[in-house]
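Entry 12.
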Amino acid sequence: MSKTKPITILMVEDNATDVMITKEALDHAKVLNSLHVVDDGIEALDFLHRRGKHAKAPRPDLILLDLNMPRKNGQEVLAEIKADPKLKHIPVVILTTSKAEEDVLKAYGLFANCYVVKPVDFDVFADVVRSIQQFWFTVVTLPRE
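Predicted 3D structure (tokens):
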């Protein structure tokens, strides 16, 4: 992936504080990015399928997906993404507060690319977001659309 091309990230998160922290962490890491935020699973799928108000949405390079959301939870969204031939190659990072073993197992069973538990501490959370960015956009080679 070109270093000059902005990274397109779709964040599926209904907690405004977590969205703010993620934005700040990406800014601190000097990540050239385009962060798009939706706050529930149905809107996430509309964004990914370019439906309704998201008809001109860009294809994300990475999806940060919370599990606990209204209308359609993260596991349901993950299952739909990974079952769709046009979307399944997009890396999905589960970013959630759940440490439950059954949630971890189910996420990987649905082909999540990784599972990260959100730390409570702001500085640690910011470090986690920077680590995700570093790994997915510096170390890993991603497919192009």
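Annotation: The mean pLDDT is 87. Residues 14 and 39 are 4 Å apart (CA to CA).
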